[in-house]
Specification:
The structure holds two protein chains of two kinds. By secondary structure, chain A is mainly α. Chain A has ten helices and no strands. Chain A is globular, with a radius of gyration of 20 Å. The mean pLDDT of chain A is 90. By secondary structure, chain B is an all-alpha fold. Chain B is rod-shaped and about 65 Å long. Chain B starts with a helix and ends with a helix. The chains are: A mainly alpha, B mainly alpha. The interface between A and B is medium-sized, with 36 and 27 residues.
Amino acid sequence: MNKIVKFYHEMGSPPSFYRITGYWLKPLFILALVLTIYGLIDGLFFAPPDYQQGDSYRIMFVHVPAAWMSMFIYFVIGVCGIIAFVWRMKVAEAVMMASAPIGALFTALTLLTGMLWGKPMWGTYWDWDARMTSELILLFLYIGVMGIYSAYDDDPRKAARLAALVAIIGLINLPIIRYSVEWWTSIHQGASISLMGGNSGIKDWSMLRPLLVMALATKFYYLYSMLHRARTYLLRTEQNKSWVTKQIIEN
Amino acid sequence: MLTLLDMGKYNFFVWSSMALFGLMLTVDLVSIHRHRRQIARQIKARQRRQQS
């Protein structure tokens, strides 16, 4: 069997998923920690000040990666939601529910650091601007996914299917967040980097480097946190199975 | 050292953002480990009840 197909099937089985991902946790955490330390030191002390925003733009090194993660994690939740809803795959349910708290955390962080950046730049902590409002709706969607699941906690399979439905419906919010600054008049600035090589976004490598490092660091942290939670989710929902008993005795 | 930490008139906003970032990720890190320990204890207790 093709190695990739074999790996895919292995990852779909809760005991194999638990065993394989156990080896990934430590390297992921170390990568996240080292990259965060490097990215923050580089961004706070070595990147030059912005000619318009001065030192306040350094908030970007936590705000922008958190905002990217808030959307990326919701995309993962949506895809896992579709898999869980259509194919009833347990690991997809675990990844979906494990991603929700960390996604909510990154969304809250985006909103709070955005407010701290907004005050000195716009003169206000909050404005019912399209970008900010759609990001706030994203936070409510995360809370909705977790809330629906908690409401049916005694039947995890049913809870996950209902949460998946909310997650799938909420996917519509992602393009709204992404294009809100283009579709509506907004006080929020445009994209921080341009993948298509346009004129918008940061051009100075000494500013771009810490931003990309922090983006990688938050990705690794998300993987670490999500896998940790997904493993715990599987232990809880599969506690009657022999592999869980074996795992608990071994640890 | 103080010169290094100085963010001009934006000290409060920059350092509050960094503190929030550190605090929220630390809370997440602590909570995932506590939750895992709690679940493991529950499963162990359940196994002991079943054995006795």
